[in-house]
C-alpha cells in the first residue's frame, strides 16, 4: 500500500524543483514505528527530497507515513539532534540552509571518504555493475531532459551508493550517509545549471567507463570531480543567498 503525499506547505511531499511527486510507502505496523519513521525521513533528506527552508510538521509527517504523532515526533527529534533539521516551534521543523563553513567541511570529508569508498568499491564491484549504473544514468538523463529534478536527485543517490556499497566497509558508508544527510537538501541548488552544463552526466559516464576498464583510480577521480563540481555550484548559491540577506 502506498500513499501519495499532499502538496500543502506543511506537507512532507518531496516537492522537487518542478513539483514532481515521489510516493512514500506507508510503514508496516509490526516494526518499531519510531525507527522506521526516522529511516524513511532520513533517506529522503539524504536524497534531497526536501529543499532548504522547507517546513515540516509532526502532523503532516505522521499522516504521510501512516503513523501516530508519537513516532513521527520521535523521528523529527532524532533528525534535529543530528543537525539535519531545526525546530522552529513545538511541532514544526525546518530543513536548514547550509553555511559556507559547513559546505567546506562536508566537501573536504566527502572527497576523502567517498574517494576511498569509490576506489575500494570499484575494485570489488561485480561485473554487471556498469550495466546497472547505465540504467540509472538513463533515468537521470530522462529527468534532466524533462526538468524532473526531484527524480534526478533520487536516482543520483542510487548511482553513487551502488559503487560505494561494494567497498564492504559499513562504518565508512554510515559516515558518508551522515554527510549526505547534511548536504542532501542543498543539492536542489545544483539545478538548473547542472542540467544545462551536464557536469554530473560527464562524471558519471567516466565512472561507468572506468569500471568497465577495471580502473579504480579513474573511478575515484571521477567521483571526486563530481563532488568538486557540486561544491563550486553550491558555493556560488550560498554567496548569492548571503548577499541577499545582507541587502
TrEMBL record:
Record domain HTH gntR-type: where: 31-98
Q: Keywords on this record?
A: DNA-binding, Transcription, Transcription regulation
| Alphabetized SUPFAM superfamilies for the sequence | GntR ligand-binding domain-like, Winged helix' DNA-binding domain
Q: Which InterPro entries match?
A: GntR_C (IPR011711), TF_FadR/GntR_C (IPR008920), Tscrpt_reg_HTH_GntR (IPR000524), WH-like_DNA-bd_sf (IPR036388), WH_DNA-bd_sf (IPR036390)
Pfam families recorded:
FCD, GntR
| MF terms in GO | DNA binding; DNA-binding transcription factor activity
Question: What is the protein's given name?
Answer: Putative GntR transcriptional regulator
Q: Which domain of life is it from?
A: Bacteria
Amino acid at each position: 500500500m502506498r500513499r501519495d503525499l499532499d502538496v500543502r506547505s506543511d506537507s512532507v511531499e518531496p516537492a522537487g524543483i518542478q513539483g514532481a511527486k515521489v510516493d512514500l510507502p506507508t510503514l508496516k505496523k509490526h516494526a518499531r514505528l519510531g525507527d522506521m519513521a526516522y529511516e524513511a525521513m532520513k533517506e529522503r533528506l539524504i536524497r534531497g527530497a526536501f529543499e532548504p527552508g522547507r517546513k515540516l510538521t509532526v502532523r503532516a509527517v505522521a499522516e504521510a507515513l501512516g503513523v501516530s504523532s508519537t513516532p513521527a515526533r520521535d523521528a523529527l527529534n532524532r533528525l534535529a539532534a543530528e543537525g539535519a533539521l531545526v525546530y522552529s516551534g513545538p511541532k514544526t521543523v525546518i530543513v536548514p540552509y547550509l553555511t559556507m563553513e559547513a559546505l567546506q567541511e562536508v566537501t573536504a570529508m566527502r572527497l576523502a571518504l567517498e574517494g576511498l569508498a569509490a576506489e575500494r568499491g570499484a575494485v570489488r564491484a561485480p561485473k554487471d555493475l556498469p550495466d546497472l549504473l547505465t540504467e540509472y544514468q538513463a533515468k537521470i538523463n530522462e529527468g534532466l531532459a524533462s526538468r524532473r529534478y526531484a527524480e534526478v536527485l533520487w536516482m543520483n543517490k542510487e548511482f553513487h551508493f551502488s559503487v560505494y556499497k561494494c567497498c564492504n566497509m559499513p562504518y565508512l558508508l554510515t559516515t558518508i550517509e551522515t554527510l549526505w544527510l547534511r548536504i542532501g537538501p542543498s543539492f536542489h541548488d545544483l539545478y538548473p545549471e547542472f542540467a544545462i552544463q551536464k557536469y554530473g552526466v560527464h562524471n558519471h559516464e567516466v565512472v561507468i567507463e572506468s569500471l568497465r576498464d577495471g580502473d579504480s583510480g579513474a573511478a575515484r577521480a571521477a567521483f571526486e570531480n563530481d563532488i568538486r563540481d557540486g561544491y563550486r555550484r553550491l558555493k556560488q548559491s550560498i554567496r548569492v543567498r548571503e548577499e541577499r540577506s545582507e541587502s
